[in-house]
Each structure stands twice: as structure tokens, then as C-alpha cells.
Specification:
It is a single chain. The chain has 208 residues and is α+β, with helices and mostly antiparallel strands. It has six helices and nine strands. It folds into two domains: 63 residues, Roll (Ubiquitin-like (UB roll)); 104 residues, 2-Layer Sandwich (Translation Initiation Factor IF3), CATH 3.30.110. The strands form two sheets. Strands 5, 6, 7, 8 and 9 form a five-stranded mixed sheet that branches. It has a four-stranded mixed sheet with strand order 2-1-4-3. Strand 3 and strand 4 form a beta hairpin. The radius of gyration is 36 Å and the shape is rod-shaped. The termini are far apart.
Length: 208
């Protein structure tokens, strides 16, 4: 920039975007100073290098402002973790479910872990059903990003927000569904099939 440009001549573009052509660097620098602006190298590898007459301070400010605006638009996603046990009581489960809903509604992801101790790993199905209840209960505004899988003594599921939650949704008004609500067919008793009526057998020689 300015006096730090060491090449003897440059291709100059003025502050209005008009190409002035190739000229000695000293002449281009004098032209920039005459306008109270800077001579800035914008294409150093070109032959000759391309320089533009502009307000360097204003350029730096504009770039800084754009960078700040870009950072503001970037959504920082936090992953919260909730731990459960396969025998977590219903009241405690509802309390933790409320926290899960709060996290999702404010845009956070939630990693839900069901911890198994000792022989509790035998209750893996119970842990899976617990996670299924949570997924179904939040499906209007969240989505499971991974399937529930058992890793050692932990069953892990990651749930993320979809951004489709109704405005001003109260987390306390999101119900935790029970298994009967999400798997109704499992709990409905199937009617026993009716036996086919046996054909009437008439004795031989009988007439109507």
C-alpha cells in the first residue's frame, strides 16, 4: 500500500472503478494523495500489478463490520446432556423431560444417556422404550439425529431442534407420552378369530 509498493509501474483503477491504465507507481501514488485517498495493491501477482485508489481506513472498517455481522448470523449450537436410569421413577423422568424440552426450544441439542449398572443391562428394552417416549413427545419440534444404541453400559440418543416449534411454546405444556399412547396396537387385545361354522351333515336316506 502507498510507499510500500516497490514495482516501477502499476495498472491503476480509480475510486470510481474506472481503469486509468498502466502508469508509473510514483504518478499513481501522487494521484491518490491528490484525492486524499490511498493506493492499494489488489492483485500483486498480475503483470503489472493492479492497484486501486480508495479509502483504506473505510475499507478496513467495512470488512470488520461484515465479519461481525457474519459471526452474529452464525448460530452456536450447544449440546446438553441428560442422564437417566432404566428404573427412573415417573416423576423424576417428567422433571428431566421438562429440561430436555427447555433445551430444545432454545435451540440446543440434547444428548440423552440411559446408564446401566451391574445387572441393569438386562433392562435395555425398558431403557429403549423410555427414549422412544421422549422422541415421540417432542417430534413436533425436534428430531432424533442418531438411533438409540447401546454402547457398553450406556444407551445414547442425540436429539436436535428442527426450528418448527410454535412461538412462545411453554415447556410445561408439552406432555410426556406414555407407551400406550405411542404404541397403541401393542396394548390392544386382539379379537379371537371366529370359528368357521361346520357344515350340517344329513343322515343317509334323509329327505327334506
Amino acid at each position: 500500500m502507498n510507499e510500500r509498493i516497490r514495482v516501477p509501474e502499476v495498472l491503476v483503477i480509480d475510486d470510481l472503478g474506472v481503469q486509468l491504465g498502466v502508469m508509473p507507481t510514483r504518478e499513481a501514488l501522487a494521484l491518490a494523495k491528490e484525492k486524499g485517498l490511498d493506493l492499494v495493491e489488489v492483485a500483486a501477482t498480475a503483470r503489472p500489478p493492479v492497484c486501486k485508489i480508495l479509502d483504506y481506513g473505510k475499507l478496513k472498517y467495512t470488512k470488520k463490520k461484515k465479519t461481525q455481522e457474519a459471526k452474529k448470523k452464525q448460530s452456536v449450537v450447544t449440546v446438553k446432556e441428560i442422564q437417566l436410569r432404566p428404573r427412573t421413577e415417573e416423576h423424576d423422568l417428567e422433571t428431566k423431560f421438562r429440561h430436555i424440552v427447555e433445551f430444545l426450544l432454545r435451540g440446543d441439542k440434547v444428548k440423552i444417556s440411559v446408564m446401566f449398572r451391574g445387572r441393569e443391562v438386562a433392562y435395555a428394552q425398558q431403557g429403549k422404550e423410555m427414549l422412544e417416549r421422549i422422541i415421540e413427545s417432542v417430534k413436533e419440534f425436534a428430531l432424533a439425529e442418531t438411533s438409540a444404541k447401546l454402547e457398553g453400559r450406556r444407551m445414547i440418543l442425540v436429539v436436535g431442534p428442527t426450528g418448527k416449534a410454535p412461538a412462545n411454546l411453554d415447556p410445561k405444556k408439552v406432555p410426556l407420552l406414555d407407551l400406550a399412547q405411542i404404541q397403541p396396537k401393542t396394548f390392544e387385545s386382539k379379537p379371537e378369530p371366529k370359528a368357521d361354522p361346520k357344515p350340517e351333515v344329513k343322515p343317509e336316506g334323509a329327505t327334506e
